[in-house]
């Protein structure tokens, strides 16, 4: 599917946080997509309207950017392009949780890409998340992902030691990637945009699974170059650039 | 001219976008300039007043930062220091175009550094730009650059496969750089600030041409180290740091 | 002390500038701490309340983020966690100076981490700082640091060719680090957060000195890999990740 992404060179409108914006933009360029970043309410409707997908990230949200996310989200829905939501630090503050609820209510989101703690927070499950980290909890993650997918009518991709991708029906369980990926900020954020790029080829749970698998394999390739986070970050961008088709390990439906 | 830049160590006030700010600041330091970034209306008049040049970039503009750009621009004009405008994604939204028009009306801009699609948008020419990418069009780029330089009474540097630098009279055509430069976000943005640094030595079309030539050669040196965008980005900062005088290939006037 | 930092994996709430946010977050992760960045007034009280320390940085301050810094600072004080202030470009504008005065008045700051020019500005000493650079001045830096520590009742860490760390009583003079560190943006900003992480182990002048020493040695290790700023930046993150205990060179009290 990466070949189709590169042929299409989709324009992805990213409203994202300033911590990861540079890494995210460079990752998208390396992938073969074209990122455009802008969060001013005056222009986001127009930006979303020329884009092939919209990628929303609340990592450093503020009242101004949240308004822009809602405007862009509605414009994306009008145009029918995929919308990916990255609910960074969902459980860290009640403000984040209320913003996520509002986005999920007012925007037709195609896919949520998050970690375990963020998913648990959205679904109001007990989880020991800390800040923007995944944390640990007791529930069965696959069940929570299925429940979330059904509740909101969207695709859920929850990444961690094992990645789970589901639309509430089909479940892909993916084992790809390396631990060092959690030592680089924005690895999840960039994956969310990469997911948006794959969804421009096909709006399906399989496309999301393929994005996650592809991304994990890029992480493995980069980890083979260096396992130190500074060098790894550089090698990861190189890996996204040089990788061709991934071997998809599909999980079964349940 | 790079020697004079380094001797002067000019302070460049950059009001720029959060996607490229880190890369831009590191590039300026590697060059031998001193960047200061701040976009709060309360302080930009003072920041511009202590600076040797002002570098404006609308990549992630918002109403607050646009107001600051106008204040800083007027302060720079009062002090008589060069002002460089980077009209990122000019054609992507009508808001961007109206902001550019306003800046060009209220601020005496010394030089515009942009890509073909952005120049075409400013001059209302037909062009197939997409988001913040250069895109493709039919018109003769040199003619459009000459027209823009005359219309606004400034230097135009439009970069691409061939770079064109003109003040409406003299035209430099420069062939330097490598394709991989377009796979790293902020390469154009950083060049705009580098141009501002060169303009502190001499406010002339030749200084802009030399900045563009120098920058392209740094890109060639970095591409010789690596052609993968992650590694290239790192090598490019190293190249800016280690490079001395460039060989200027001057184009003729026409 | 780094072992204790890594065992604790402290959550550091950073309200920082968009120029260095990515580097700062990656440095904190490499160190073994967990950064969370957010500057919306609606949520900073909650963010500071779940954190182990608060790191404030005014590099690209604006009225909105200043309000958030004050809210977060008061919440951190209520919880009793350390607060580190990085007064970036203190002397560059009167707005910055007034904001620093306000923070020092309304928030109980544990430590200030700055360069010579910034310290001189805060203490209204004559100093030839330029923008956000350290600059040069005539006064005895150690005396000014002692005076500041006593006046505000906090720890002062002023970094430069020789680093001075004092609580107004004990003085540590530290010689560690390499000149190339001043060619990478955010080196000081990241140190301020690293200081916050060390202060979560022990709120003492010794903890700050150890953070400064550790950081300088990481710089030496990275400089041994590369002395070009692009490669150095990458090597520095790797060095933070791989370094274990540092050899502390304690200065005497005076």
TrEMBL record, chains A, B, C:
Pathway info: Cofactor biosynthesis; thiamine diphosphate biosynthesis; 4-methyl-5-(2-phosphoethyl)-thiazole from 5-(2-hydroxyethyl)-4-methylthiazole: step 1/1
Necessary cofactors: Mg(2+)
Organism: Jeotgalibacillus malaysiensis
Biological process, per Gene Ontology: thiamine biosynthetic process; thiamine diphosphate biosynthetic process
Record's catalysed reaction(s): 5-(2-hydroxyethyl)-4-methylthiazole + ATP = 4-methyl-5-(2-phosphooxyethyl)-thiazole + ADP + H(+)
Entry similarity comment: Belongs to the Thz kinase family.
Keywords on record: ATP-binding, Kinase, Magnesium, Metal-binding, Nucleotide-binding, Thiamine biosynthesis, Transferase
Enzyme Commission number(s): 2.7.1.50
Main function: Catalyzes the phosphorylation of the hydroxyl group of 4-methyl-5-beta-hydroxyethylthiazole (THZ).
Official protein name in the record: Hydroxyethylthiazole kinase
Binding site for ATP: 113, 159
Binding site for substrate: 37, 186
Annotated CDD domains: THZ_kinase
Annotated InterPro entries: Hyethyz_kinase, Ribokinase-like
Molecular function GO labels: ATP binding; hydroxyethylthiazole kinase activity; magnesium ion binding
Recorded superkingdom: Bacteria
């Amino acid at each position: 599917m990466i070949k189709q992404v590169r042929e299409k060179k989709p324009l992805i409108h990213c409203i994202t946080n300033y911590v990861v914006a540079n890494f995210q933009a460079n990752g998208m360029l390396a992938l073969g997509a074209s990122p455009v970043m802008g969060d001013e309410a005056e222009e986001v409707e127009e930006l979303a309207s020329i884009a092939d997908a919209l990628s929303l990230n609340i990592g450093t949200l503020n009242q101004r950017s949240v308004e822009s996310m809602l405007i862009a989200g509605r414009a994306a829905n009008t145009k029918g392009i995929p919308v990916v939501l990255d609910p960074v630090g969902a459980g860290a503050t009640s403000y984040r949780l209320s913003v996520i609820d509002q986005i999920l209510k007012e925007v037709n989101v195609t896919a949520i890409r998050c970690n375990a703690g963020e998913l648990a927070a959205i679904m109001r499950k007990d989880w020991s998340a800390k800040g923007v980290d995944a944390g640990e909890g007791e529930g069965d993650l696959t069940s929570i992902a299925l429940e979330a997918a059904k509740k909101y009518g969207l695709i859920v991709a929850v990444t961690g030691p094992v990645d789970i991708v589901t639309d509430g029906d089909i479940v892909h369980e993916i084992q790809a990637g390396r631990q060092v990926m959690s030592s680089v900020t924005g690895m999840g954020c960039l994956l969310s945009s990469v997911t948006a790029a794959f969804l421009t080829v096909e709006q399906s749970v399989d496309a999301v699974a393929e994005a996650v698998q592809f991304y994990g394999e890029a992480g493995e390739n980069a980890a083979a170059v260096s396992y130190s986070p500074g060098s790894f970050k550089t090698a990861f961008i190189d890996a996204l650039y040089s990788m061709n088709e991934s071997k998809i390990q599909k999980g079964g439906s349940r």
